Amino acid sequence: MSRKIRKGGKKPLVKKVFALVVDGHTESWYIQQLNQQLKKQEKGILVGLDLQPKLPQKKKLEALYEFIEKLEKDEYDKIFWIVDFDTIIKISKESKKGVQTELDKFIDYYKKLSINKKIVIIINNPCLEYWFLLHFVQTSKYFSSYDELKKELKNYIKDYSKTGDFYNNCNGGNGIYSFLKPKLKTAILNSKKLAKFIIKTKSIKDYNVGVSEMYKLFDELKIIS
C-alpha cells in the first residue's frame, strides 16, 4: 500500500502504510499520537509513514486472526498485532478442563502468522503499561495484571488512567506520547534487555514473565528518541 506523494518538483515522497491491530482504546490513542508526530517530521525525508490503528469490534481470538488475514490481503506494507497477554492468560484460567484454552488458540495463531514476514506480533505481558513503565525504570518484574502494574506505574506517572482525557490532555494537552518521548530511547533499551517472548509449552505458568516487544515497532520506524 505504499503511496507516492509529489511535492512540487521534488522527488516523490514514498509513503508506507502500516496497520496496527490493537486490543483497546489505550493502544489506539497512543498510536494515533505517534502517527501525528511522524507527520510533523516528514518534511525533508524521502520515506514517510502512515500508521493506521485498527480496533476490531470483535475481540475473540478467532475473529482477530481472521481480521488480520483480511488486512494482509489489503496490501499494507506491514501489519503489527499488539497483544495484551494478560487477557489471554485470564481467559485461559477461566476455561473448563478439556476445552481448548485461549492460550492454546493463541499459540496456534502465533505460529501461523509468524511465518508471514509482513506480519509482526508484539507481545506486552501483562499489557501496554509495562512499556510505559520501562521509560522510567529497568525492570524484569512480572506483573500478573494491569491493576498490579498500575501501582508501580503511578510512582512515575501519578495521575495515570486509562481514559481518553488523560491520554490526550496530559503534558499540557500534548498527550501521552509527547510526555513519554524524551525517555523513548531508555524504554527501547530496557525492553530489549527483557526476556524475549518464546512459545514454550501450553502451560500458563511458563508465561509468567515480564515482556514488552514495543521496540519492534520503533525499530521498524527507525525512531530512537
How is this structure best summarized?
This protein is of the alpha/beta class and 225 residues long. The protein has helices at 25-40, 61-73, 85-93, 102-114, 128-133, 146-153, 164-173, 176-180, 184-192, 215-221; strands spanning 3-5, 13-21, 47-54, 78-84, 119-125, 211-212.
Proportion of residues in extended strands:
15-25%
Largest sheet: 6 strands, mixed
Low-confidence stretches: none
Q: Could you give the distance between the termini? A: 27 Å
Radius of gyration: 18 Å
Describe the structure.
The protein is of the alpha/beta class and 225 residues long. The chain has one domain. The protein has helices spanning 25-40, 61-73, 85-93, 102-114, 128-133, 146-153, 164-173, 176-180, 184-192, 215-221, and strands spanning 3-5, 13-21, 47-54, 78-84, 119-125, 211-212. Helix 3 packs antiparallel against helix 4. It starts with a strand and ends with a helix. The model has no long low-confidence stretch (mean pLDDT 88).
Topology readout:
Elements: E1 3-5, E2 13-21, H1 25-40, E3 47-54, H2 61-73, E4 78-84, H3 85-93, H4 102-114, E5 119-125, H5 128-133, H6 146-153, H7 164-173, H8 176-180, H9 184-192, E6 211-212, H10 215-221
Parallel strand pairs: 2-3, 2-4, 4-5
Antiparallel strand pairs: 1-2, 5-6
Helix pairs in contact: 3-4
Key structural traits:
alpha/beta; 43% helix; 225 residues; globular; six-stranded mixed beta sheet
